[in-house]
Design goal:
alpha/beta; eight-stranded mixed beta sheet; 8 strands
């Protein structure tokens, strides 16, 4: 029998609510007006398992009169947590279905866009491959289309870390002690180079605190770290299907991103007509590291397809 855990975080934010599906709750918050005229945006966070908090800056698209939806995917943040669910419960299909149901619940299924960051961009690509009638555009931010390539590139970046950091990572991975503070400190060296190169704002800190509290989804689908993927996503690869995507697509990434130019180029070369903007001062979170340039870029693209 699954144990359900409800996270009772502060929910005083205006327009926060919950969608119930299959007996589980998906928390969401609307920023701006979904009926304002511009195509509303659903913002898909990364991880998998990261919670929405660190994507809050993306919802500043509302300043352009564009309604935005932030939500915590099942197992994350303020949504229902299922720490005792079997590994096979956590599938790409689960999160694709949740996204579809959320657009219907909010009555925007007839016209919406998706902005997905990291795993959220993977989810956006998967969603676009289903050709939903109401999907007007996707923004794929800092995402791969192939986990084997992601891991290969992550380990190439890892090889540039200080030798003692690499040794610490390898020692704990081989010993199965990746929950060690020493391992986490070594991972932080990688994060400071390739995840977020500015001091972490509160929204990023909150996301990582929540993941530490319940890492079920991340550990099950990914693994203990970005470059040690031993979860169910380790063989995920849709590169060969990218040419099927007909939805207008914008690709964004950072020069120092763990979603390296090699990774993003594999998507850019396969989705017809997809522009790609590379943020020179950013790593994996241009929306945090170069927020104004990120917002202007994404809004200009969305406005072009409204």
């Amino acid at each position: 029998m699954m144990m359900l855990v409800r996270r009772d975080h502060d929910e005083t934010a205006m327009n926060a609510s919950r969608m119930v599906r299959d007996g589980h709750e998906t928390w969401y918050r609307i920023v701006g007006d979904l009926d304002a005229g511009s195509t509303p945006v659903v913002i898909c966070h990364g991880g998998p398992g990261a919670a929405h908090d660190y994507t809050e800056p993306i919802a500043d698209l509302s300043r352009y009169g564009r309604g935005c939806v932030l939500y915590d995917q099942l197992g994350c943040g303020r949504s229902t947590h299922l720490p005792d669910a079997p590994a096979e419960f956590w599938t790409v299909r689960l999160f694709k279905d949740e996204l579809v149901d959320l657009t219907r619940h909010l009555d925007i299924a007839g016209r919406y866009a998706v902005v997905g960051q990291s795993w959220g961009g993977m989810l956006a690509l998967e969603h676009a491959l289903d050709h939903p009638d109401g999907l007007r555009a996707i923004v794929v931010a800092d995402s791969p289309a192939s986990m084997p390539l992601w891991v290969a590139e992550a380990n190439r970046l890892r090889a540039d870390l200080p030798r003692e950091v690499q040794a610490t990572l390898t020692r704990h991975e081989e010993a199965g002690t990746t929950d060690s503070p020493e391992y986490e400190a070594a991972v932080s060296v990688y994060y400071d180079r390739h995840l977020c190169r500015v001091p972490w704002p509160d929204c990023v800190e909150r996301t990582f605190a929540q993941m530490a509290e319940d890492p079920t989804v991340y550990h099950t689908m990914n693994g203990p770290s970005e470059f040690h993927c031993i979860g169910s996503l380790q063989t995920w690869d849709i590169t060969g299907r990218l040419h099927e995507i007909s939805t207008p697509t914008l690709l964004v990434s950072g020069r120092h991103d763990e979603a390296t130019p090699t990774i993003v180029e594999q998507i850019h070369s396969r989705i017809p007509g997809a522009p790609w903007v590379l943020f020179e001062e950013s790593s994996h979170m241009p929306h945090v590291e170069e927020p104004e340039a990120f917002l202007a870029t994404v809004e200009a693209f969305l406005a072009s397809v409204d």
